[in-house]
Amino acid sequence: MSELEPKPDRRKFGFRVVRAFLITAAYAVFWLIIWSLTSMLLARFPQYQTFFSVLAGGLLFFAFAIALAEGTIYKYILKIIRAFFLMAYLTYATNGGVLTISFENLALTVEFVPLLALMIVINLLEVARVLLQAIEFAAQSPKD
Amino acid sequence: MVLRLTVRAIGWIIIFLWIITLTLPVSVVFSLMRLAEGNNLGFQEPTFTFSNGNVSISMAIYVNNTGFYDISEANVMIRLSKADKTIATMSESLPNIPAGQRVDANLSFNASLNEVFQKDHTLLIDDADLDGCAVLHFRVAYAIAFNIVNNFSTHWGAPFHNLTCKPLGYNDSAHTFSFFVSFNNHAFFPISGSLTVELYNSENAKIGETLLDLDVPSGEVFEKTVDVVVVDPSPITDKVFIRLSFAKLNILETEWNLP
Question: What is the CATH number of domain B10-156?
Answer without folding.
Answer: 2.60.40.10
